[in-house]
Design a protein that fits this description.
Layout (H helix, E strand, L loop, with lengths): L6 E6 L3 H12 L4 E7 L2 H10 L4 E5 L7 H11 L4 E6 L4 H10 L3 E4 L3 H14 L3 E2 L1 H13 L13 H11 L4 H8 L3 H15 L4 H11 L5
Parallel strand pairs: 1-2, 1-3, 3-4, 4-5, 5-6
Helix pairs in contact: 1-5, 2-3, 3-4, 7-9, 7-10, 8-9
């Protein structure tokens, strides 16, 4: 499939001002159009699957589902959709997880005014977009890779990461079961599996881990 004359874009960020700023920049371009907005990751997935959009710009830290989790879900269910991660964090961990999830690029909010248009066009061409220091990070990782493998990010399943995020957001087992359409008993089983896999004892430790993983903001 070729590049559309006008790329229809979904913006997902839990801050209305960020969405408004991005819309202003993107709608000013003749080949880009913001067609939908979402304020959390779950809403972004739902709208991206239902609406006619070619590209989703997803904030890395959102309620319900992070931008990286949403990217992985969309990559699985709508592989033709291009995704970009938008982040305020110059973080190697976020960068690697975003690329692993299937994102076409990683854009820092600090440079979004100038970078986001180039990133959108690169993604639609099938290219990757990375901010300058990220390229150095990838080269360094390629050289240094060895002892510590990527498996540290694969300890938990995608469903366990969803449950962990909601636990860290102080949702009860009943609330989690309703949000994820699973039984309370299944939630409790996931919680115990997460504790066992991570070698942790309680929600306080899980919350600290969720913050380190970027699932929630401190």
């Amino acid at each position: 499939m070729g590049i559309p004359l006008v790329t229809r874009i979904l913006i997902a960020d839990d801050h209305p001002l960020v969405r408004s700023g991005l819309r202003k920049v993107l709608d000013a371009q003749p080949d880009l159009e913001v067609a939908a907005e979402a304020e959390n990751g779950a809403e972004a997935v739902d709208k991206a699957l239902k609406e006619d959009v070619h590209l989703a710009i997803l904030d890395v830290s959102m309620p319900r589902m992070t931008g990286i989790q949403a990217t992985a879900e969309l990559h699985r269910r709508k592989p033709e959709l291009k995704t970009l991660i938008l982040s305020m964090h110059d973080s190697e961990q976020f960068l690697f997880e975003a690329l692993k999830a299937g994102a076409s690029g990683y854009v820092l909010k600090s440079g979004a005014d100038t970078d986001i248009v180039d990133a959108c066009r690169a993604a639609m061409r099938g290219d990757s977009f990375l901010y300058p220091s990220a390229i150095a990070t990838l080269v360094r990782d390629y050289v240094d890779r060895g002892g510590r493998g990527e498996e540290q990010f694969d300890v938990l399943t995608p469903r366990e990461l969803e449950v962990l995020k909601l636990i860290a957001e102080a949702q009860t087992s009943k609330q989690i079961s309703e949000l994820l359409f699973i039984s309370v008993k299944t939630v409790e089983r996931h919680r115990q599996n997460i504790l066992d896999k991570l070698g942790m004892r309680d929600r306080v430790e899980l919350t600290r881990y969720a913050i380190r993983r970027g699932l929630i903001q401190p």
